Amino acid sequence: MKKKIQIILKKDHLNLGEIGKITSISRGYALNYLIPNDIAEIATKNKIKHITMFKQIKNKEIKNSEIISKALQKNLEILNKISIRKKIGEKNNIFGSINEKDIKNKILKYIGIKIDKKQIIINNIKKIGIFNIEINISNNIKCNIQVNIIPINI
């Protein structure tokens, strides 16, 4: 009888690893603790094959999203500057403020790519002038764009 068996983790475990990891542990630990508490299951050939297939699919999706993110970054770097016209009042203050929705609509208008307003990091803009905003395309890809606020009623 084998002293160690292979298991697949169903839940994150501090000592063993994260979900989906295949590891060899002692038979008693697996049968008496991990499997009854629904932390792990016994690894069979089909289950191992199934998990490796899902990992390959996930890696392909990550690569595709990186390619799309880099293409979006190139388009945003080409754009580089957005101009928005707003009415002004006293002391060069604009009526209202510039928000993520305004930036999102201008990007959609100029390059035809729809981005989520949660990706746009913008300070409170209430005056005319040039401001820098940051767009988080993905976890590790960011792009900076200048926003030029131009007065209408001069």
UniProtKB/TrEMBL annotation:
One of its GO terms (cellular component) is ribosome. It comes from the Eukaryota. Keywords: Plastid, Ribonucleoprotein, Ribosomal protein, RNA-binding, rRNA-binding. GO terms for molecular function: rRNA binding; structural constituent of ribosome. Residues 17-44 form the Ribosomal protein L9 domain. InterPro entries: Ribosomal_bL9, Ribosomal_bL9/RNase_H1_N, Ribosomal_bL9_bac/chp, Ribosomal_bL9_C, Ribosomal_bL9_C_sf, Ribosomal_bL9_N, Ribosomal_bL9_N_sf. One of its GO terms (biological process) is translation. Belongs to the bacterial ribosomal protein bL9 family. This is 50S ribosomal protein L9, chloroplastic. It comes from Cryptopleura ramosa. The gene is rpl9.
